[in-house]
Specification:
Length: 262
Amino acid sequence: MVFLIFAWAFLMGACVGSFLNVVILRLPSDEHSFFTKRSYCYNCHQTLYWRDMVPIFSWFILKGKCRFCHHRISFRYPLVELFIATLALLCAVFAESPVQGLEIFIFCTVLVAVGLIDLDTWMIPLQLPILVTLTGLGFGYAQGMDVFYSRLIGFVAGFAFFALFLLGSTWVLRAVKRLQPDENAMGWGDPVLIGAIGANLGWFWLSWMILLASLQGILLYFFFSWTRKPLPDDDWVPPQKSMPFGPFLALAAIEISLWNLI
Ligand SMILES: [Zn+2]
C-alpha cells in the first residue's frame, strides 16, 4: 500500500515536471496558453503525438530528436521531469505530514521554473515568486505563529535588504556614469525572489541560503563564464563573463529545503 502511494507520487511528479517544461518555455514568451494549446515541435511546428509526450521515457525512445524533422530536443526536458518526479517521491517518503510534503513540493517546483527561466532569459516572471510568497506565509500561518513570524521576518528582511541594495548600487553606478539614467544595477526579480525564499525558509535559513548561493555562484562562474553564448533573438546581450543570480538563489533554496526535509 505504501509502495503504491510512493509510485503514485513519482508518476504525478513526472507529469507536473512535464507541465513545468511547458511553463518554462511559454511563460516568458507571449504564449500564455498552458492548457489549451497542444504541444508542438519548436522547429517544424508539427503537433506532437501523445506517445511522444510521455514524461521521461519519450525522450529516450525518440533518442532526443523530433519524430518529424529530427531536430535535437534538449536533454533538459527529461531531466526536469525526472527531478520533479524524484522531488515528489522524496516529499512523499520523508514529509512528516501530507501538508508539509505538499508545501515543499510546491516551493521547490516553482523554484525550478524560476531558476531555469532566469537562466534562459535573464528575467524572473514576478508572478512565480509572488505565488510562493503567499503559499509560504499561508502554510507558515497554519503551523503556528512562531513559524509565521519567522517567515514574515524572512520575507520583509530579504526583500527590503536587497531592494535597498538595488536602489543604492543603481544610484552609485548612475552617479559615476557606469549606468545610463534609465538603467538599473539589477532587476527587481532578485529582491522579490529573495523575499519569497525568506517567506518559505524563515529568516534563519534565509541567511544561510544567501551564503550558499553566493559560494556556488562563484564556483560555477568559472565553469560557465567562457561557455556562455549570447542569446539569440534578444537585443539585450548579457555582459560578458556574467551570470544571473536567480538560478543560484533557487538552487540554494532547493538544497536547504531538501536538507531540512531529509
Ligand atoms: Zn520537429
